[in-house]
Amino acid sequence: MTDRELMDRAKEAWKFAYIPYSHFGVGAALECDDGTVYTGCNVENAALGCTICAERTACVKAVSEGHRRFVRIAIYGEGETYCMPCGQCRQFLAEFSPEMEVLCAKAGGRYVSYKLRELLPHTFRL
Ligand code: THU
Q1: pTM, full prediction
Q2: Closest by Cα among 33, 89, 87 to 56
Q3: Share of the chain above pLDDT 90, in %
């Protein structure tokens, strides 16, 4: 699967974002080492701190079905700037695959690519 195809999967998931509070949708598509792709969207809550980001939705879906090694994640948002993963999502993904690649899109579909290691150096570990 190409980077663009993975981003298209993230865009499809973006349509399901539950965003009554921020009105900012995010979609994610997480590729596992065997090629399986899990998607996710942000799911907000009236108790705002309960909100779950798109990346963590996808990651929890994958881990709960037995996948722990990830190659890439595509993150799609329609902001004016690239939709970067928040600090909590960086830490959450790094738990499983600190060397994975992170693709971040903005309105219009252009995206940039990083290594998770660059976005979160010196990851916390026990
Ligand atoms: N959000 C994500 O889904 N992923 C991130 O990495 C950053 C933020 C969501 C959470 C909330 O629903 C909305 O974006 C605005 O913060």
Answers
A1: 0.98
A2: 89
A3: 100
